Automatic annotation (TrEMBL), chain A:
Keywords: mRNA processing, mRNA splicing, Nucleus, Ribonucleoprotein, RNA-binding, Spliceosome. Residues 2-89 form the Sm domain. GO terms for cellular component: catalytic step 2 spliceosome; Lsm1-7-Pat1 complex; P-body; precatalytic spliceosome; U4/U6 x U5 tri-snRNP complex; U6 snRNP. This is Sm-like protein LSM2. The lineage of its organism: Eukaryota, Viridiplantae, Streptophyta, Embryophyta, Tracheophyta. It comes from Acorus gramineus. One of its GO terms (molecular function) is RNA binding. GO terms for biological process: mRNA splicing, via spliceosome. Component of LSM protein complexes, which are involved in RNA processing. It comes from the Eukaryota.
From TrEMBL, chain B:
The lineage of its organism: Eukaryota, Viridiplantae, Streptophyta, Embryophyta, Tracheophyta. It comes from the Eukaryota. One of its GO terms (cellular component) is P-body. SMART domains: Sm. Residues 41-116 form the Sm domain. This is U6 snRNA-associated Sm-like protein LSm1. GO terms for biological process: cold acclimation; deadenylation-dependent decapping of nuclear-transcribed mRNA; hyperosmotic salinity response; mRNA processing. Its main location: cytoplasm. Component of the heptameric LSM1-LSM7 complex that forms a seven-membered ring structure with a donut shape. GO terms for molecular function: mRNA binding.
């Protein structure tokens, strides 16, 4: 539950969600739920040259246009590998405290 | 209900107006919450407006397009008029599938399609299902060939 409330505080910030199929999507975090399903707005696929993966050709017209035809998307929590956060989005001290509280079961 | 409406006919305009007002109240305040029964996930999904064209990316890499008709907290979804978009290089094809129920565990992402911007770029050409099958097979053969070549090279390197 800690990370649910943690992600709720990140709503409105720009994050990069890296999926288990190596697709990385950058966008503004719109909402998150208990399963850590994520809804992103103003999405774009990052690093498509570095990952010439099947899914990236899903948006081949991205080369000409910086925008996709998919602007908002819902990502199922179970397929997320990493979420890259904005550097100013983390208050390490508060997170440390919260993690300790959670570990104590309080 | 019939007798109730019959009664209404005998009443004057004011009570008819009151009836309309109350029924409007009913539809505004009692019907919408029914959409939110499914829990938090469906709350997120429900902010994708309902009769809307979606792109569903599945775990095996398939891309389904269709109109969202229903969903639940597991991201199970019902797509009406679904079609699979097969993309091989610059060729693409929409293979019609009909009504699809997708089990949530297979979903990677669900994207809203912008209806004005849904059209593909100029360099993409639409081909028939048979042609896309042929192109797919050619691509698969090419990757297979590459794999076997690489395997042979590794063998040479070991020598």
């Amino acid at each position: 539950m800690l990370f649910f409330s943690y992600f709720k505080e990140l709503v409105g910030k720009e994050v990069t969600v890296e999926l288990k199929n190596d697709l990385a999507i950058r966008g503004i975090l719109h909402s998150v739920d208990q399963y850590l399903n994520i809804k992103l707005e103003n999405t774009r696929v990052v690093d498509q040259d570095k990952y010439p993966h099947m899914e990236i050709r899903l948006f081949p017209w991205k080369v000409q246009k910086p925008e996709l035809s998919v602007r908002n998307c819902f990502i199922r929590g179970s397929v997320v590998r990493y979420v890259q956060l904005p550097p100013d989005g983390v208050d390490i001290d508060i997170l440390h405290d919260a993690t300790r509280r959670e570990a104590r079961g309080g | 209900m019939v007798s109730f409406t019959c009664c209404l006919e005998t009443l004057d305009c004011i009570s008819v107006a009151l009836f309309h007002f109350l029924s409007a109240l009913f539809f505004f305040f009692f019907v919408p919450p029914l959409f939110f029964i499914g829990g938090c996930a469906s709350f997120i999904l429900s902010s994708l407006y309902f009769p809307e064209k979606l792109l569903v990316l599945l775990r095996d890499g398939r891309k389904l397009l269709g109109i969202l008709r229903s969903f639940d907290q597991f991201a199970n979804a019902v797509l009406e008029g679904a079609c699979e978009r097969v993309i091989v290089g610059d060729l693409y094809c929409d293979i019609p599938l009909g009504l699809y129920v997708i089990r949530g565990e297979n979903v990677v992402l669900i994207g809203e399609l912008d209806l004005e911007r849904e059209e593909l770029p100029a360099h993409m050409t639409r081909v028939s299902a048979a042609d896309i099958k042929k192109a797919q097979k050619a691509e698969r053969d090419a990757t297979d060939l590459k794999g076997t070549m690489r395997k042979r090279m590794e063998f040479l390197d070991l020598e």
